Amino acid sequence: MTDNPSVGQCDCGATAGPLGVCVDYYHQILAEEQADPQMYSWHAPVVCAYLLQHPSGAPQKYLDDQFRLLQLYLDKGLDALLRVAAHQVARNSHRAQSGYDMAPLAPYAPLPPGGAPGHFRATFCGLPFRDGSFVSDGHPAYGRHIEIIAEATVESWRSAQT
Ligand SMILES: [Zn+2]
User: Fold this and answer.
1) pLDDT digits (tens, 9 = 90+) for 118-130
2) How far is the CA of 20 from the centre of ligand 1 (A)?
């Protein structure tokens, strides 16, 4: 009687999962990865994909870099992404006036100007969460889920442009 199908829809178009909408999953991931260095390896693609799937609350000026970082991740893999991300963090911590080193991201497509897509084929609230954990099936399985979300994110932004 209290079921209401209009409740539990996320900004990204996804239907809420057992933990809630994507922001609930996102906060749970951030909490769990703090205590799990291996899971934290996927922190950068998690943040980029989450913000690009929910851009209304994100600083617009970083979305273009984040879109390119996801493309680099899908193209070159996690290690390549971590090298670029670590380099950027190091530069920021030294207050480099030049800001981000865009060289590794330059070959990738800029963020399409058309605005946020309203649908993604893979979302955060679709992530499996069992026994109080995102990595109960192991870290490689978690990494594959994040990669699929990253692919879905880039794919929808690209197709939203046309
Ligand atoms: Zn969402």
Assistant:
1) 899 999 999 999 9
2) 10
